Amino acid sequence: MTFEVRPASVFEDVRALIGPKSPGANVCWCLSYRIPSKLNNELRGPARGEYVGELCRTEPPPGVLAYDGDEPVGWAAVAPRSDTSFARSRTVPHVDQLPVWSLWCIRVRPGHRKQGVSHALIAGAVEFARSHGAPVVEAYPLDSGDAQVDMTMAYAGIRKNFERAGFTYAADTTSVLAGHPRVLMRLDLR
After folding, report:
1. pTM for this predicted structure
2. What are the counts of helices (DSSP H) followed by strands (DSSP E) for the chain?
3. Rounded to 5 degrees, what are φ and ψ at 45?
4. Per-residue model confidence as pLDDT tens digits over 37-60
5. Which of 73, 98, 145, 190 is the most buried (most CB within 10 A)?
6. Separation of alpha carbons 72 and 155, rounded Å
7. Residue ranges in the chain assigned as alpha helix (H)
8. Cα–Cα distance between 189 and 13 in angstroms, integer?
9. Is the pLDDT of residue 25 over 80?
10. Where does the record place the N-acetyltransferase domain (predicted)?
11. For the chain, first and last CA: distance in Å?
């Protein structure tokens, strides 16, 4: 299958992928790594969606969406690392001082998994970052080997998917998600 990947500037499509079923719910909205912890804890219910709506109206938007025709089927968060909590992370090291972009969340809609959407999202996020001048894209996927990963925790991505996209191992992290270590992977765009 072929999926079209576009900038995440249509809020309704972003909401369909990462928003809650109930508008008042306190779900992540993919803000946990994007904004400071204090603000993340202060934003409750509909305020979280409103914040993401503003991000969708800014340049660059907060990530990319994969479409199957007109239907949004996948989401990837990608932004300059300096604009995320990874900039201040004690668990994810800085490899060098390049102004890298971080790719930290991949979400594929149920019913569309195992069709190549995550691969399209990774490639689309890389092209999005490249088009905005990123010299390097980093990801912090799970290094799960052949072990099963809980789907709710697979948002960080899986190491082998990033390897298939040309990313290479750059460093260990002390971050662990769902019992699996996370590694720092990089793709040099220079």
Report:
1. 0.95
2. 5, 7
3. 50, -130
4. 999 999 999 999 999 999 999 999
5. 73
6. 17
7. 11-18, 37-42, 46-56, 117-131, 159-164
8. 28
9. yes
10. 16-190
11. 30
